[in-house]
Amino acid sequence: MLTEEQLLAAPEDDYMNEEQLEFFRDLLSQQAKEVRESLASAREQLATFENEPDELDKASIEEERRMALRFLDRQTKLLPKIDQSLKRIEEGEFGFCEVTGEPIGIRRLLLRPTATLCAEEKQRQEMKERNFRDA
């Protein structure tokens, strides 16, 4: 199996060859497993929170609960993105921008394997969102 260094050193014309797809399939599968485990752990933690009569303890527990719920929300949203990326690998669409069809790039995919947009398209969309918000 390829290492990150080998992946980054590969020629551009090898982009998303079978070895590279296998690397990302394994990476995403491992991430999905970790997310599922962390979700189960966070849910278990939430179930063990107790009501404390002391106001300071109560505030502390509420803050911990809020942080756990926020973590759960993030992880719950990440899992479908991982599953969608695995599906894109199977369909031969992984690594290519959904809008432009251009390669997303190995570096970007290593940082965010669930990316579906190339950096340029992501920037365009963020600019549109900022302009829309500011208008």
CATH topology of the largest domain: Four Helix Bundle (Hemerythrin (Met), subunit A)
CATH class of the largest domain: Mainly Alpha
Q: Estimate the mean pLDDT confidence.
A: 89
- Which sheet architecture does the biggest sheet show? none
In total, how many domains does the architecture comprise? 2
Pfam families: DksA_N, zf-dskA_traR
Domain DnaK suppressor protein DksA N-terminal: 20-89
Domain Zinc finger DksA/TraR C4-type: 92-126
Keywords: Coiled coil, Metal-binding, Zinc, Zinc-finger
Structural write-up:
The protein is mainly α and 135 residues long. It has five helices and no strands. The chain has helices spanning 4-9, 18-48, 55-90, 106-111, 119-134. The longest helix has 36 residues, at 55-90. It is extended, with a radius of gyration of 20 Å.
Which features does this protein show?
mainly alpha, single chain, extended, 2 domains, 0% strand, 135 residues, Four Helix Bundle (Hemerythrin (Met), subunit A)
Q: What's the gist of this structure?
A:
With 135 residues, the protein is mostly helical. It is built from five helices and no strands.
Topology:
Elements: H1 4-9, H2 18-48, H3 55-90, H4 106-111, H5 119-134
Helix pairs in contact: 2-3
